[in-house]
Design brief:
globular; 3 domains; Double Stranded RNA Binding Domain; binds zinc ion; alpha/beta; 8-stranded parallel barrel; 16 strands; TIM Barrel; binds 3-methyl-2-oxobutanoic acid
């Protein structure tokens, strides 16, 4: 039996994941995700791209100051200014600070995007790595679009950057183009032909455009790669990145033929997935492997019968192994603080006392109106009450009249930058009237991309949860709101999205609005 090798898990949820449309997070949200990643025990957290904006710089700096276990990486292009900026944020992590520098190496990227000859690209890469090494030995170098790079040039580049001091070399499938057999061969070629390859950790970074990111990552480690770059729920640019939970659970579940392990504490996977989805508003598809709502649900009678006789008939891993407690404790109006706090902890919410108090008040008020409070209700309360971005616009009160006799009218009172404002506006329906009133009061006119409303749990007393996606001044944002009145939930979601848009504009322009 071959020896079990440990594969490093490099999480890039806060960098590549944040590049998903609508996934932008503020510093507080990033810190929450980072502490969940610390609980998961990932080896490296890529916290951001420090030169991209002041907000990114601050987030990387705060994460470097706060997180104690994993290494903290910051991305930078292969130039002196980017590297200096990255190190200024990363230095707070000391030896755990990792400079991750990259340049494109495929012909198409070098010719069309960089407009540089291969020799110049090589020179820039080596110069960048040498400069990064002057700050720390913990330097990662990535060949962007490695999969479409000429193999001999890729090998030369990897050899040169390792000579220059890179201790991790990353091979990204930037456009998600590869298939497992091909990706295996690329990594194997590098393992066999780069003379100094044993001086660095070989990493892979797969995008999911063909739905093959996890398969390609597994093929790569079979060829000798020792680090996988991935994100929670597989979020990321376009079709996303390799999903952390899928690749980790594949390694764990198929240890019989994949002699590898990771340091991930898998029982924190499900809480991490929920937290990310609550923070970003990006809902996990029900049939998503590992963390989807149906991943452990057995509907068909024959399956249910089998599972009751012996779980292993249809279950290849247990829900408990990912932190999903199937014996759900349902809370109600008689549940006390202890049960409430215990449930929040099980769901992965480790909150300060004052946040718990606020959430508990909301919980009690909901429990007065609703018989059973499910985990999804708690998620909605936490999202609504705790995980909030600065509220430039606040909903004070509202009233809507609608029906089949008169035109629907919404009367809305908002606090906008500290000032109370009120308007009554008619619309084509109660939601339309409400949104028009909010637009009038905020003097914002965003483009509504998507609006959806649903009951979080069953029953007519359920909380309604509304999700609004809109675009404002080049920022696409997602807002969420929950309330037992669906029109109030819609107003809250709309205002939440407007606040996110304002926050995003503020962060990118760095000026007061
Ligand atoms: O996909 C990619 O190539 C990247 C690199 C910057 C690592 O994200
Ligand atoms: Zn990427």
């Amino acid at each position: 039996m071959s020896k079990i090798k440990t594969i490093k898990i490099f999480d890039t949820t806060l960098r590549d994941g944040e590049q998903s449309p609508g996934a932008s997070m503020n510093i507080e949200e990033k810190l929450r995700i980072a502490s969940q990643l610390e609980k998961l025990n990932v080896d490296v957290i890529e916290a951001g791209f420090p030169i991209a904006s002041d907000g990114d710089f601050e987030a990387v700096k705060k994460i470097a100051q706060m997180i104690k276990g994993p290494e903290i990486a910051g991305l930078c292009r292969a130039n002196i200014m980017d590297i200096d900026r990255a190190w200024n944020a990363l230095k707070y992590a000391g030896e755990r600070g990792r400079i991750h520098t990259f340049i494109a190496t495929s012909d198409i990227h070098m010719e069309r995007k960089l407009q540089m000859k291969p020799a110049k690209v090589m020179e820039a890469a080596v110069k960048a790595v040498k400069h990064a090494v002057s700050y720390t030995p913990n330097v990662e170098f990535s060949c962007e679009d490695a999969v479409r790079t000429r193999l001999d040039f890729l090998a030369e580049m990897i050899e040169a950057v390792i000579d220059a001091g890179a201790t991790t070399v990353n091979i990204p499938d930037t456009v998600g183009y590869s298939i497992p057999f091909e990706f295996y061969n690329i990594i194997k070629h590098l393992m066999d032909n780069v003379s100094n390859i044993d001086k660095a950790v070989v990493s892979v970074h797969c995008h999911n455009d063909l739905g093959l990111a996890v398969a390609n990552s597994l093929a790569a480690i079979q060829a000798g790669a020792q680090q996988i770059e991935c994100t929670i729920n597989g979020i990321g640019e376009r079709a996303g990145n390799c999903s952390l939970e899928e690749v980790v659970m594949a390694l764990r579940t198929r240890r019989n033929i994949l002699p590898y392990e990771t340091n991930i504490r898998t029982e924190h996977i499900y809480p991490a997935s929920r937290l990310l989805s609550t923070v970003t508003g990006i809902v996990v598809q029900p049939n998503k492997a590992i963390v989807g709502a149906n991943a452990f649900a057995h509907e068909a009678g024959i399956h249910q019968h089998g599972v009751l006789m012996d779980k292993e008939t249809y279950e290849i891993m247990t829900p408990e192994s990912i932190g999903l407690n199937t014996n759900k404790l349902v809370l109600g109006k008689h549940s006390g603080r202890h049960a409430f706090i215990a449930r929040l902890k099980e769901l992965g919410y480790d909150l300060p006392k004052e946040d718990i108090e606020r959430a508990f008040v909301r919980f009690k008020s909901l429990a007065d109106r609703k018989k059973e409070i499910f985990d999804e209700d708690l998620d909605a309360i936490i999202a609504d009450e705790i995980i909030r971005i600065p509220e430039t616009v606040k909903l004070k009160q509202m009233n809507v009249s609608s029906g089949s006799f008169a035109a629907p009218t919404a009367t809305v009172e908002l606090e906008v930058r500290g000032k109370l404002k009120k308007a009554a506006v008619m619309g084509d329906g109660p939601v339309d009237a409400t949104f028009k009133a909010i637009k009038k009061l905020t003097r914002m006119d965003p483009h509504l991309i998507n609006f959806s409303i649903g009951a979080i749990t069953g029953g007519t007393d359920a909380l309604g949860e509304c999700t609004v996606r809109l675009e404002h001044e080049g920022h696409e944002v997602l807002g969420q709101g929950a309330h037992s009145d669906i029109i109030v939930a819609s107003a809250k979601a709309y205002i939440n999205a407007l606040n996110k848009a304002l926050n995003a504009s503020e962060r990118s322009s760095n000026v007061e609005i």
